[in-house]
Amino acid sequence: MLMNSSSPIGIFDSGIGGLTVLKEIFSKLPHEHTIYLGDTARVPYGIRSPETVTRYSFENTRFLSARQIKILIIACNTASSVSLDAVREHFPVSVVGVIEPGAKAAAAATQNKKVGVIGTEATVKSNSYTRAIHAIDESIAVFSVPCPLFVPIVEEGWTDDRITEMVAERYLSAIREKGIDTLVLGCTHYPLLKPVLTKVMGSSVRLIDSAIETARQIRDTLTSLSLLNGSSGPARHEFFVTDSPDKFLSVGERFLGRKIEHIEMTKLEMEV
Ligand code: DGL
Q1: pLDDT, tens digit, for every residue of 30-49?
Q2: Which distant-in-sequence residues (6+ apart) come within 8 Å of 19 by Cβ?
Q3: CATH code, 220
Q4: What is the rounded average pLDDT for all residues in the chain?
Q5: 10, 62, 121, 153: most buried, per Cβ within 10 A?
């Protein structure tokens, strides 16, 4: 494969949400070139079967692999949950998902060994976070709740809204009663809900942001592979979407906290 330390980092998500991971990459690795693919034509992944999401992940990976990426980030929690192993097996590229970094941070953070996990229905059903946390420490009790309404709420921009607080209360009261001291934000969109989640869970509950943990993991992995970009010139950031870029641009700039340039709509090569 024609890649070296100045090759880009490839990153895909079901749509806009993975920009929370990209934002952390920008902050921790400002000299890295990136190529982001948002599969906006087929979002959401969180309600789909593992087989369908795995097929989508393969098509996304094929698209990015053809662009000489040095490492692939599966930013989508749902896709990481159900397809990470299969993608690793099938493609000759280093792949990092968001589950292991979040699980590792949660296991390290909990004092009372009671951890909550919130995510899409597919992520919670896959048990990926529970498995990853138990691989580190089996004695940690993990309580998971799907919170499907959070994705449209965040995209609507209602991150600081009474309605969102009511929805969060309804979803989270059961795990709050379990006495968890750590909550994993197991979905790309949830970092934008941190203030509401802190209000509902109480400030003593540690929120684990998988996006931040994944960016750390990428920095460590690139360092150990001697693949950090040595150049301090301006980094190039390309964006691809599978549907019209309009909504991605308006909502995405809020997720990313900066302007999105160089965006293109693309068709993915379907599997036969
Ligand atoms: N990116 C997805 C995730 O992190 C959320 C949106 C979707 O369901 O596609 O699970």
Answers
A1: 999 999 999 999 999 999 99
A2: 13, 36, 38, 188, 252, 255, 256
A3: 3.40.50.1860
A4: 96
A5: 10
Residue keyed to tokens 């599966």:
74
Last-in-domain residue among 210, 232, 255: 210
pLDDT of 133-172, one tens digit each? 999 999 999 999 999 999 999 999 999 999 999 999 999 9
Q: Is 187 a catalytic residue?
A: yes
Kindly state if the Cβ of 151 falls inside 6 Å of ligand 1.
yes
Report the alpha-carbon distance of residue 262 to residue 27 in Å, rounded: 19
Residue listed under structure tokens 């400002």: 30
pTM: predicted TM-score of the whole model, two decimal places: 0.96
By residue range, what is the domain housing residue 13?
A: 9-97+212-265
Task: Choose, from 53, 76, 98, 168, the residue flagged as catalytic.
Answer: 76
Is 147 a known active-site residue?
no
CA of 228 to the centre of ligand 1 (A): 28
